[in-house]
């Protein structure tokens, strides 16, 4: 087991990375002070069916009530109704200020459970038990929340977990499209911060259906370290943290305009990164070799922009992005690999760039 540390202005917490952590939850949680009075495990149906019993069994050692609440899977479930139902359940079960919420699942559950924890009785403790590759990103950093029909992640709070227990063996049951989705955030971390890591990924990872355990472990640790470093410097996204949104301005627009859950988060981000790379080359004096990176991304079978979406509609959704001010879109672009910057881009420039991008990148 390896431990990384996240240090923000409000909290310091460990990220444990290992295997079979689910069997050791009680001793890990017993270290929390003040002692936990009850536990609520939140999960989705797929993950719940696979791992809930094990989690409950493992928490018996606490000798405190353990409750479980399961919501349907998919990003459409990061919703007001599931948020409300989770809070109702927590109140009915009598969770108090020393209770603990455990997020057992991917980024959807992590964001939802974190938001429930961050707002229940003005904030109680929670732990992330990420079960997807993507959640190496979402479980770290304390952004929690739900989607609004008008925009992705539009309602939420910053609420850091007490700890993140990343058990790599969870990924054994993860379907390939979800591995691909999570790998997009790994690529993002490399592109925004670490050219050597990008070269490693390019040279060492060619088949996502068969990533050897030692390489998987390496890329997870690398991705988490990059995320932790950025979050440590700018917990509340006053500046630097915005670079983590590379690929997300168009990505979020694609997710909300397609209907949440229609396209995976990572697939949408992969499209968004290709667009951001194209724009970086159009607007900057760069040596990015955009086409080369873009072709490498495509090699993993990331999809193209869904055929029903056009440039005007996507621009409209991008203007609602949280980085936008007074309706002006701010894009995260790259000067070079590892050198991101944020730039306000005029609507007409964006619209033309989107049209150009869609000419080559739209689903046939
Ligand atoms: N908070 C943040 O900083 C942050 C960062 C990035 C992404 N996100 C959010 O994360 C979400 C996407 O996360 P995700 O890709 O993990 O999606 P997800 O949680 O919806 O999981 C994807 C699918 O995989 C299934 N699944 C999860 N773990 C499994 C396992 N071990 N075995 C089998 N099936 C499993 C789930 O049931 C679901 O169907 C989005 O809502 C996105 O906005 C948040």
Automatic annotation (TrEMBL):
Binding, Zn(2+): 185, 248, 265
Chain residues that bind NAD(+): 131-132, 143, 152
Pathway recorded for this protein: Metabolic intermediate biosynthesis; chorismate biosynthesis; chorismate from D-erythrose 4-phosphate and phosphoenolpyruvate: step 2/7
Keywords noted in UniProt: Amino-acid biosynthesis, Aromatic amino acid biosynthesis, Cobalt, Cytoplasm, Lyase, Metal-binding, NAD, Nucleotide-binding, Zinc
UniProt cross-references to Gene3D superfamilies, sorted A to Z: 3.40.50.1970, Dehydroquinate synthase-like - alpha domain
Recorded GO MF terms: 3-dehydroquinate synthase activity
Record's cofactor remark: Binds 1 divalent metal cation per subunit. Can use either Co(2+) or Zn(2+).
Main location: cytoplasm
Principal EC category: lyase
Domain (3-dehydroquinate synthase N-terminal) ranges: 69-180
Pfam families to which the protein is assigned, alphabetical: DHQ_synthase, DHQS_C
UniProt catalytic activity: 7-phospho-2-dehydro-3-deoxy-D-arabino-heptonate = 3-dehydroquinate + phosphate
Cofactors required: NAD(+); Co(2+); Zn(2+)
Subcellular location: Cytoplasm
UniProt keyword Zinc, yes or no: yes
Matching InterPro entries: Dehydroquinate_synthase (IPR050071), DHQ_synth_AroB (IPR016037), DHQ_synth_fam (IPR030963), DHQS/DOIS_N (IPR030960), DHQS_C (IPR056179)
Domain 3-dehydroquinate synthase C-terminal: 182-324
Record EC number: 4.2.3.4
Superkingdom of the source species: Bacteria
Annotated family: Belongs to the sugar phosphate cyclases superfamily. Dehydroquinate synthase family.
Function, as annotated: Catalyzes the conversion of 3-deoxy-D-arabino-heptulosonate 7-phosphate (DAHP) to dehydroquinate (DHQ).
Protein name: 3-dehydroquinate synthase
Gene that produces this protein: aroB
């Amino acid at each position: 087991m390896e431990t990384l540390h996240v240090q923000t202005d409000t909290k310091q917490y460990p990220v444990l990375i290992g295997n079979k952590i689910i069997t050791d939850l009680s001793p890990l949680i017993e270290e929390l002070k003040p002692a936990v009075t009850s536990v609520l495990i939140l999960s989705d149906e797929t993950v719940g069916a696979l791992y809930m019993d094990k989690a409950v069994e493992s928490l018996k050692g606490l000798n405190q009530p353990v409750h479980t609440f399961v919501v349907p899977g998919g990003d459409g479930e990061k919703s007001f109704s599931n948020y409300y139902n989770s809070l109702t359940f927590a109140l009915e079960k009598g969770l108090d200020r020393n209770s603990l919420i455990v997020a057992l699942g991917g980024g959807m559950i992590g964001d939802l459970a974190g938001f429930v924890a961050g707002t229940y009785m003005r904030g109680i403790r929670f732990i992330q038990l990420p079960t997807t590759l993507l959640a190496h990103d979402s479980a770290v950093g304390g952004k929690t929340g739900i989607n609004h029909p008008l925009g992705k992640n539009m309602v939420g709070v910053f609420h850091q977990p007490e700890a993140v227990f990343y058990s790599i063996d969870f990924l054994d049951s993860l379907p390939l499209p979800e591995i691909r989705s999570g790998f997009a955030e790994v690529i993002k971390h490399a592109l925004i911060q670490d050219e050597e890591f990008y070269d490693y990924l390019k040279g060492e990872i060619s088949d996502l259906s068969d990533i050897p355990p030692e390489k998987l472990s390496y890329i997870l640790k690398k991705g988490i370290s990059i995320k932790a470093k950025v979050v440590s410097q700018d917990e509340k996204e006053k500046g630097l943290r915005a670079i983590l949104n590379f690929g997300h301005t168009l990505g979020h627009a694609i997710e909300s305009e397609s209907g949440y859950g229609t396209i995976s988060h990572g697939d949408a981000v992969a499209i968004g990164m290709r667009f951001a790379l194209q724009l970086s080359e159009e607007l900057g004096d760069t040596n990015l070799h955009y086409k080369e990176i873009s072709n490498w991304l495509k090699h993993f079978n990331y999809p193209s922009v869904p055929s029903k979406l056009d440039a005007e509609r996507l621009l409209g959704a991008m203007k609602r992005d949280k980085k936008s001010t007074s309706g002006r879109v701010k894009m995260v672009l790259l000067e070079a690999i590892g050198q991101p910057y944020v730039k306000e881009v005029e609507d007409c420039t964006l619209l033309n760039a989107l049209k150009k991008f869609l000419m080559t990148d739209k689903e046939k």
